[in-house]
């Protein structure tokens, strides 16, 4: 009986951990790379999509596996700073406040080995996962594109990682 229970639990855990990936099926791994600061690896990022090149006209996923602990507040502050930096025009204060609230809901504190995923939903917005648990879905295309722009915008602070995620360089 114990063996059966362990098998059921293992199958459930495997299925549950694939929820974010099920959101982008029949996607395949497009590219991946590490993000490091001052020689310290913070995370490994992966881009999943059905089609290459990845574009905002299709569903895709950014999946991140963390090597270090990072607090949610730090994610939100860094993300919002990058969104503002990359914007082609100033973003209204009420929009920035709403996006900050959305990120606070969607993101969680992470430790080594934890995983966060974001699914781009064309004509809709973005869905976030922490491990196998959906943490938020936001029907806001501007927010979704601004968020993914942190990695995909040509002016990203991580141009090598951008190329790796898009499958442009090894």
Question: Can you walk through the features of this model?
Answer:
With 170 residues, the protein is α+β, with helices and mostly antiparallel strands. It has a single domain (2-165), classed as 3-Layer(bba) Sandwich (Chalcone isomerase), CATH 3.50.70. It contains 6 helices and 6 strands, in the order ααβββααβββαα. It has helices spanning 2-17, 19-22, 72-86, 93-106, 141-152, 159-165; strands at 28-37, 40-49, 60-66, 115-121, 125-130, 133-138. A 6-stranded antiparallel beta sheet has the order 1-2-3-4-5-6. Helix 3 crosses helix 5. The longest helix has 16 residues, at 2-17. The chain is globular. The model is unreliable at 1-18 (pLDDT under 50). Residues 1-18 form the signal peptide. GO terms for molecular function: isomerase activity. Residues 58-167 form the Chalcone isomerase domain. It comes from Paraburkholderia agricolaris. This is Chalcone isomerase family protein.
């Amino acid at each position: 009986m114990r063996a059966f229970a362990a098998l059921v639990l293992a199958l459930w855990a495997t299925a549950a951990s694939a929820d974010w990936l099920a959101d982008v099926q029949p996607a395949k791994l497009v590219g991946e790379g590490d993000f490091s600061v001052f020689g310290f690896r913070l995370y490994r990022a992966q881009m999943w999509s059905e089609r290459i090149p990845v574009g905002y006209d299709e569903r895709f996923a950014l999946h991140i596996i963390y090597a270090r602990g990072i607090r949610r507040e730090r994610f939100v502050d860094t993300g919002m700073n990058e969104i503002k930096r990359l914007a082609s025009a100033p973003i209204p204060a009420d929009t920035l406040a709403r996006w900050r609230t959305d990120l606070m809901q969607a993101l969680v504190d992470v430790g080594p080995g934890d995983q966060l995923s974001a699914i781009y939903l064309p004509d809709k917005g973005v869905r976030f996962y922490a491990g196998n648990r959906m943490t938020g879905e936001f029907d806001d295309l501007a927010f979704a594109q601004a968020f993914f722009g942190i990695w995909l915008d040509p002016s990203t602070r991580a141009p090598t990682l951008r190329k790796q995620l898009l499958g442009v360089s090894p």
